[in-house]
Amino acid sequence: MPSRLRGLVVTAVLATVACLGLTSAPAMADAYTPITGEGSSWAANAIDDWRASVVNAGIKVNFAAAGSVAGLTGFAQGNSDDFAASDIPYGVKDTSPDPPGRAFAYIPDVAGGTALMYNLTVAGKRFTNLKLSGPTIAGIFAGSITRWNDPKIAAENPGVALPPLKVTPVVRSDGSGSTAQFSLWMAKQFGSVWKCGQISFFTQCGSYKATTHQAKSGDNGVAGFVAQAGNAGSIGYVEYSYALQSGFPVAKVLNKAGFYTLPTASNVAVALLKAKITMTPGPTYLTQNLDGVYVDPDPRNYPISSYSYFVVPTQLQNGFTNPKGKTLSAFVRYALCDGQQKAPTLGYSPLPINLVQAGLNQVKRIPGAETAAIDIKKCNNPTFSADGTNTLAKNALYPDLCDKSTAKAGCVYGTPSNGSKSASTGGQGDQNSVGAKPTGTGSTTTSTGSATTGGAGTPVVGGAAPGATTAGAASGAGAGAAAGAGAGAGTGSGGQVSILNPDGKTSCDPDTGQCTQLAASPAELPLDHVSAVSRWAVWLMIGLLLCLILAPPALVLSSRKAKS
Amino acid sequence: MRTTPWFLRSRRLRRVAAAALVVDLGLGVLFTALAVSAGAAETSSATASAASTGSSVTVRWVEDRASFDPDYVDATTPDPQDRNQPLFTDLEVTVSQTKDLTDQGLQVSWKGGRPSVGSGAGADFLQLMQCWAGPGASGPTPEQCQWGTPSGAVAAQTGTATSTRLLFEGDEADPKQDLGADRTHAQFGRDPEKLVPFWSVDDPEKKDLGWVNDAYNQPPYNSAQSNEVTYARTAADGTGQYIVNLQSALSSPYLGCGNPTLTRAGYSCWLVVVPRGEFNLNGARADTHDDSLPQNSQYVAGSPLSASAWQDRIQVRLSFTAIGASCRLGDNEIATAGSELVAAAFSSWQSALCSQGTTLGYSQVGDGQARSALQAGGDGSPGLTFMTDPIDPATTGDADIEYAPVSTSGLVVSYLIDKNYTGDTDNPDRGANGTLVTDLRLTPLLVAKLLTQSYRGDTPGNGQTSQVSKDNPVSIRTDPEFLALNPDFAYFYKSSAPDGLVVPFGDTDAAQAVWAWLRSDTATRRFLSGQTVGGVTINPAYRDLGLESDETLASFPKADGATFLPASAPKTAPEFGTLDMRPYASSFTDGARRTVTASSGSKTTWDVTKVPAQYVSDGSQTPGTRFEMAITTSQAASLYGLPVASLVSDRTDTGPGVAPTADAMTKELARRVATAAPGVYRVDPMKDVEGGYPLTMQTYAAINVCAAGTTELTAYARLLDYVAGGGQNPGTKLGQLPLGYAPLGAADKAQARSVAADLRAEIAKPRCPSHQATADPSPTSGPTTTPPTPTPPPTQAQPPLSGPTAPAVVQAPVAAPTAAAPGAVVDARALGITPVAQVSPAARYAVLAALLFALPCLVAGPTIVRAGRRSR
User: Fold this and answer.
1) Which terminus of chain A has fewer CB atoms gathered within 10 Å of its CB, N or C?
2) B523 and B402 co-located in one domain
3) Which portions of the sequence form the region Disordered (chain B) (predicted)?
């Protein structure tokens, strides 16, 4: 009996201790002070998504997509902005305001492609396979190419009956980082056509004519104009997500490898492998030099790719407080980690690991930041891989031969430009233009490999897969099955494109069948997750309590019975 | 047999045992106390939730007046120093809801007030503010109120200091107001000024904000953040109403409303209404003031926080739903994406599921994007997306896509319109001047005219440069069809007109449904096709868009390409266009936000001070002249407390029309039709459903079963189980179905549960090759040679729609759980839905206390029994 009692006592004591631990960590909210920022409309669709996502963590972030220049200016001047979002840094000559008096740091927040969204009807149908080279684009926005049947456009789109319609370039009326990035690309690459250099106010460019151009406020305004059926012939530059929102097509842009590509998440990721990031500590730390992106020889490169940035305070100035810093750091940390998961769905491209790492270190400089919580190992980002390479870029599909600059009129999509890794018909084909009505005929596969859906436009990670589904000729003769894991994620086309297991944790090489754990595999549910643990603890408590109440009388009874 | 128990045998053990007993009992007492106090806090909130619908409160000004002003005796013997008091004796203020509040619009109405004088805040108006109060306090102090940061436009409508925290000195001084050291703010380089500081609830030591050490003396909010109502006007009949945008601790931590820690500690939140009469704080009549003084010198002057005004306040205690930080950042999110129609409900469900360890993420994208993202498959693509119309089964190939209904809501035309009447004595409603319109009725034809810029005033330059017919009315307010349905508008000032009809950018099934509804009406279809209907012709810019027939149109065009140069801009300036004067909202919810803030976002004001000069925002409309309309969701309209239009068939319709109540939505759904995808139904606007709301939207979750991993499928099954269970109980608590949604019917819940069961079956016994490949090799499933033809799961025949769910008005849902289908209860339990969310701190403390008390009994009990037996 005593030994049994001893056991019970020990159990009870342990239970009490456990219970104490439970109550000392009540499921109380971390209180977060709301913060306010303004800036880039290019990045606004991503920022709005993150803002909505952190609400249930008790975080309120106000953001106005007033444009990069307004964001930089507001952050520099007043007390109202706790952070800014901008596609360009401070102090770019004739482009952005001078660096502010307050201490600040740049943190890259998301990557994306500046897309050329257009509205064009050919032979009575919305045209969705427009191909444009840089000089032609520069010519359109400089106002030297004025008709859609211009020989320069026609030469790049052989066999297309382009109408003699007026070209209406739609530009930003406000101070815009996308205007700055777009004009920088044209100035550096096609300076003979584009004479305005880098500018953030398009209307200040000498080529701007109110009679030819349309100037609209924000990406929303530019996309809103192009998306009007009545505005046939218009073409504007916006972040890809705005084209996805409205279901309008974007032009394929010629890269240095001679391929016309779309601003998909993977093409942008490939392109930005060549971005040079300033790693010297100082006021320009982490800013981008995109010269290498423009001339990248990779056939998958989308040349007008860039990063957008948060500008955050690093000192308690202009009304910034430690509680606000706590909020801002938690928000930016979410954006850099889990927030990146959502980038492809929205029409952006996730940041690579080196920029996330550098960004997280910058987050630690925000006054009031909870630095203990910042850990790249807990960062859940789809580009991370075990060997440090960018998974998204590594697995990006190669363009179709019909998207090569030398392709003839009437080229039939379906021949990959690179045999070992190919987009087959879906990836970059004619039918995948954003928003084209689904014309897919369903999968023709008889593959034993995978039952993927209808060939799924771009089988790359992320499904920025443009609007339509196309017939996915998943002809893979069981390679997917051979590779085993991972078949579910790719198209199964030759088993070449499987990237991630459906569990999202492992990456498998379809050639070797080798699977590796991603560095950023989601952490196990931490034990200190109050709610999950307490659910069981509470039931355990109730059980123990019942034992404690019922056991003594039962014991006594039984011992009495034994005696009698 | 030895009687001494083992733990008393040695001296040391005895000591230890004694100490343990003391500690144990001590802790037991402590936790009992905690349990009792926490329990007390909960009881109050429990009562609150039970009485959610009935939590409206009416307070008469004369009630308890003496407790605010010791010099007040009764209505006939008011405070001799306060000459305003006789003006307030009949005032009574009603607050529509005082329990379970959240970040929402709150309707405040009153009667028995003195009609407001002049324009703006001349005299006889109310000032409203949200405040906090400390533990045990009977109400807030002036320092605890969010006040004093009006926008420039609003401040310009008030008398001196009336919208501020400043206190008068000298002749104007309030005789009852203390102007001591804690009301004096000295700032370097400036004369010390007298004002009422703001104290934050989250800064009790006043270290950071408000007073002692704050160099700027800035309150932690500004005009964009504050929800203060600088002035609310009273109509000639003595009534008035205002929608106050309440703020939880999430938006305003410095007020702390709904912060569970503060609530437990006894802090409270309040709505304070300060009526202002015709006399200033020093007792002088405002309008006798020397009018050689600057602007508004004859307006009532002085801060409502000053003692003589403050003592006339009415205060109503508000109880907020505990704000959640139910989801932890950094937990791995399982992705979903899709229609905005589900966003608010998802957010609520997410918080309930987070607390059970399932963290789901959500990205708001258009329905079309949701459909293509689902088909894309692969990592990074969500395996579950939300949409109204299904994916065309002809394009899905072998993919196994399952659909589960998740929410029912509606598209509404919400509005914020101040009655802005001329002095016309024929107007039977003139007494209500300055109050809100709440009974707007619209026809499909009127909505079509708004959406097609067919009113001249909705085009750049009011039709001067546009091709719109010169015979068309200038605005909806002058349209005879509109006036036939809403006759009071004939007495509005001529210039009154809305900033068009605010609509969002992008392709959505919701927009598609609006056009389908417009086409379902014969007259509207004729109008859209270009015929003149009732003297109005469609704007030619819209005539060729095929609006009368194009069923694929899923956006709101803004097609008029006319531009205009305003008189204020130089000849060299660019002209503005439709998108500048009638810009898109970024979402339906953003449209509701623009309506409630009376700020459509139009940019037609040429600002030469900008570098370079550019068009800037025209700013918010001022109270008294607000006139905004937007197409938004029933949820967003409910959240912001906005009134919504009733829909009638045509101008001769004399009925009240159909409003988006839960009942009307449920009626409409009873007649829904099947789509090409099994299990998916949609509302057919061509079917005229008696009492049904035609813009009802049923939203589905679509799951690409084989493309999603088993981890995802598990989470999705949990989501659907919750959606079909507790997630349909209307209310404002986290986890409940937010206001503006109609609960799913029994058949829909059953369908959702059945899909959840399918997903679990797939995990247990995979059919998809992708899942078989990853599943552990089990002895029974040897190497299979049969081609794993993707077997579609058994498609469940849609059970006939059972009787409609209990009718409930959407604006005021029943908070008590609706009678759930029996299956739902079982399901919720099987899932373990309840434990955490509902095991309260009190219960936890109680368990602990009981345990501690039980421990010594356990040890001592048998000992005593034995000792007793021995002594026998």
Assistant:
1) C
2) no
3) 765-807
